[in-house]
Amino acid sequence: MISTIKNSSLEIKVDSNGAELASIRKAGDSCEYLWQGDPSFWARRAPVLFPIVGKLVNNKYTVGKKEYIMTQHGFARDMEFALVEQRADFLSYELENTADLMKKYPFSFKLMISYKL
């Protein structure tokens, strides 16, 4: 789901998939200031990289004696975030650990991402 916030200067759009910034425009201006993604080059716009930035050797890491698999840049950019608060100039998203995520990342967490104009 795409949500929009704005003030007298800017309007931004955020995609709940990855809580990713999807658009930046000046108020009253049709010019897009954020890369809009082109699959032939790079399809993403502004992904949130969590819990890692980069790539693991063979996509594996070890905690204690247990091995886990995690792809490049982690999983948050591909997850649906819950929109927990929205005002005219503010958005707040949340992603919490689940049983499925614990198989990839064995730590409890709550990732909150907010945008304010």
What would you say about this model in short?
By secondary structure, the chain is mainly beta. The chain is built from 1 helix and 8 strands; from the N terminus they run βββββββαβ.
Describe the protein in words:
The protein is built from 1 helix and 8 strands. The chain has about 120 residues and is mainly β. Strands 1-2-3 form a 3-stranded antiparallel sheet, with no helix packed on it. Strands 6-7-8 form a 3-stranded antiparallel sheet, with no helix packed on it. It is flat and about 55 Å long. The relative contact order is 0.21.
Describe how the helices and strands are arranged:
Blueprint: E1 2-6, E2 10-15, E3 20-26, E4 60-63, E5 66-69, E6 82-87, E7 90-96, H1 99-102, E8 110-116
Antiparallel strand pairs: 1-2, 2-3, 4-5, 6-7, 7-8
Characterize the biggest β-sheet: 3 strands, antiparallel
Unreliable spans are none
Please provide the count of β strands: 8
User: Beta fraction of the residues?
Assistant: 35-45%
Tertiary shape: flat
Number of helices: 1
Helix content: under 10%
Q: Helix- and strand-based class?
A: mainly beta
Keywords:
117 residues, mainly beta, 3-stranded antiparallel sheet, 8 strands, 39% strand, flat
